[in-house]
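Structure ticket #2291
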Amino acid sequence: MRIEKVGDGVVSERLRKLTGFTWGDLFYRGKRFVKIKVRAEKIDIDRAEVFISDLNAITKGAFADLSVDHLIHILYEDFLLTVREYMTDIKRDANSITQEEVVKSLLVKRNTYFPRSKRNEEGEISLVRKRWHIYDIHLRRDAAQRGEVFLNDAASEFLEFEMSLDELISILFVDFIAQLRRGNQKMLINALIDRFYSHDFE
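Resolution: structure written out below.
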């Protein structure tokens, strides 16, 4: 979808469907939603907000209601869609991915973005200490369950794999920010718009 053709008439409604939030949920949030703690550096949150600002500048304010919360929801929903529609038991074609590939990719990204230790020039290993910023979001319980089922199935198949839903969503967000840092903003804006309009957030 060309970014010049984006309209804002349905954006707010789709954002509402994405989070699943209604005013009634102010009283029943604990029943319908799960609190997720997204771990990132404060500059990552700032960079996400700048990305959203640039997105609105390009689309003439079509995504004025988009927040960092929504961005994280979109990244998570896109991951679920990829797993649901493209993950197969064996590699069938260029578009398909296996559970093993997804697991290995997540482990590599966790070690890259959230290393627990590092080796210095002398070969000595030391703990990595960072001041992480915790960004809370509320995820629909049904969406959270889909991710937890995937993580449980993956852990059953691969003994070296153990990951919480908080970790998974943190990895998805920080990986997106890493792509931004590499200068892929225009590509990411187009990809985000395509995902936003093609996904069914019901």
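Closing remark: DSSP finds eight helices and six strands in the chain.
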